[in-house]
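Our preliminary data section would be incomplete without showing what the modeling component actually yields. Below, a chain of 111 amino acids is followed by its predicted structure, encoded as C-alpha cells that our downstream tools consume directly.
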Amino acid sequence: METLKYKGFIGSIEVELEDNTLYGKVLGLEKGILITYEGNTLAELKEDFVNAVEDYIAHCKENNLPLRKSYSGSFNIRIPSDLHAKAAEMAQMEGISLNAFVKEALAKAVI
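Predicted structure:
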C-alpha cells in the first residue's frame, strides 16, 4: 500500500472509481480524531494532505491540545501465554526488559 508522509503523519491513498477522485485519511490516530483529504490528481491529493495536517497542527496549538501523530510508538498485542513466557524468559536471560526484547525482535523483522 502506498502512503503519504508529512511531519510524522502517515496518510492513505484511496481511489473512488465512480467519480474519478482520490481521497485518504491520516492513519494510526487515536479514536475520535479523523483527518481526511481529497484531490482529482495525485498532486492535489498530496497538497490537500499537507494542508489537512497543517490545519490539525494549528487547531491543536490554538486550542492548547496535545498533538497526536500517526502511530504513537505504543501498542498492545495479544499472544499465546506460552509465547509470552518464552519471550520474558529470553529477555531475562539477555538481561533486558521484555519491552526491549520485543522492540529488538520487531526491528529485526521489519528491516
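Residues 81-110 form one domain. Helices lie at 42-62, 81-94, 98-110. Preliminary results of this kind motivate Aim 1 of the renewal.
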